[in-house]
Amino acid sequence: MNRNLVPFVLLFLVHLCSTYKPVVLIHGIMTGSGSMEMISRRIQEKHPGTKVYNVNRFESWSSLETMWHQVLEIGLDVANISSQHPDGINLIGYSQGGLVARGIVQTFANVSVSTFISLSSPQAGQYGAGFLHVIFPGLVKESAYELFYSRVGQHTSVGNYWKDPYHQTLYESYSVYLPYINNHIQSAKSEDFKNNLLRLKRLVLIGGPDDQVITPWQSSQFGYYDTNDTVVEMRDQDIYQTDRIGLRALDESGRLHVVTVPGVNHFNWHMNVSIVDDCLLPYLD
Ligand SMILES: *[C@@H]1O[C@H](CO)[C@@H](O)[C@H](O)[C@H]1NC(C)=O
Ligand SMILES: *[C@@H]1O[C@H](CO)[C@@H](O)[C@H](O)[C@H]1NC(C)=O
Ligand SMILES: *[C@@H]1O[C@H](CO)[C@@H](O)[C@H](O)[C@H]1NC(C)=O
Ligand SMILES: *[C@@H]1O[C@H](CO)[C@@H](O)[C@H](O)[C@H]1NC(C)=O
C-alpha cells in the first residue's frame, strides 16, 4: 500500500469501527446551541466518529417558554434522532436544559437513551433569584412565589420549577411541571414517568458547591431544602426513599452516578474542558 495513504486508511478505519452512540446536547436558559459547542467539539475530538446533535430550539428569550412546550417540541426531534439510531443515544442537558432533558426521557417512550447526564440542572427545583435579576428585574426569592405561583407565572419555564420551601401548598396547586415529573403529584402519567426513567442505562447527576446559581446546589443531585433552609440530600428525600421516579432502583442497580465537583461556577460547567474530560466522556459509550 502507498505509505502516504496509511494515515487516511487508519482514520477511515477509526470512523468505521467507532461504536460511540450519538450524543444530543440541550443548552441552558437565555443561551443557545453555541454555548454547547465546546462540549460538542471535545466529544468529537476525544471520541472520534461520534455524531453530535446540538439542539438549537428555544434559544435566548424563547428559552423562557414553558417547560412542557420545550419538552414536547424538542422531544419530537430527539425521538426522530433516536429512531435513526436503534442502539440508543446519549443525552446531555446543561442547567435548565437538563430538566428539559429529564422531561423528555420520562415522557417519550420512543426515545431510547443509554446515558443521560444532567450538568448542573435544578432537578429538585430552584429557590434562588441570583441571575434571575437579568430576566425579572427586582425579583427577590422571598416574594417570587407571588409571581411564579399564578396562572401567568406558570407561563415561564422558571415558574415551572420554582420551588419555594415556605409555600409548598401554592407550589402544589400552581406548578404544572416539577411536581408532576417528580411524581410528587400523582397523575395518569406517573407510571410512565417512572418506567421511562428506569429504562436508562446510566443517570449521571453533576453539580457542585461553588455553582452559585442552582440553589440549593444540591438540587443538581435531587437534594433540596426541607420546610426551612436545611438541605436534605437525595437519599433522605421522599422521592428517593419511596422510589417515586426510580432514583432508588437506579442507584441500587449501580446505574446512578452522583458527581460533585468543587470550584466550578454555574457559567463554567459547559466551558471547562476538564469537566468534559473527567465528568462527561467516561460515561459516554
Ligand atoms: C427526521 O430527521 C430527518 C433526518 O435528519 C429529517 O429529514 C426529517 O425531516 C425529520 N423528521 C421530522 C418529523 O422532524
Ligand atoms: C414518538 O412518539 C410521539 C408520541 O409520544 C409521536 O408523536 C412521535 O411521532 C414519535 N416519533 C417517532 C420518530 O417515532
Ligand atoms: C429545619 O427543619 C428541620 C426538620 O424539618 C429541623 O430538624 C431543623 O432543626 C430546622 N432548622 C431550623 C434552623 O429551623
Ligand atoms: C474546571 O474544572 C475543574 C475540575 O475538573 C476545577 O477544579 C476548576 O476550578 C474549573 N475551572 C473553572 C474556571 O471553572
UniProtKB/TrEMBL annotation:
It comes from the Eukaryota. Keywords: Disulfide bond, Glycoprotein, Hydrolase, Lysosome, Signal. It catalyses: S-hexadecanoyl-N-acetylcysteamine + H2O = N-acetylcysteamine + hexadecanoate + H(+). It is an enzyme of class 3 (hydrolase). Transmembrane segments: none annotated. One of its GO terms (molecular function) is thiolester hydrolase activity. Residues 1-19 form the signal peptide. Its EC number is 3.1.2.2. It is found in: Lysosome. InterPro entries: AB_hydrolase_fold, Palm_thioest. One of its GO terms (cellular component) is lysosome. Pfam families: Palm_thioest. SUPFAM superfamilies: alpha/beta-Hydrolases. Belongs to the palmitoyl-protein thioesterase family. Catalyzes the cleavage of thioester bonds from S-palmitoyl-CoA or S-palmitoyl-N-acetylcysteamine (unbranched structures) but does not have activity against palmitoylcysteine or palmitoylated proteins, branched structures or bulky head groups. Conversely, hydrolyzes both long and short chain fatty acyl-CoA substrate. This is palmitoyl-CoA hydrolase. The gene is LOC112048735.
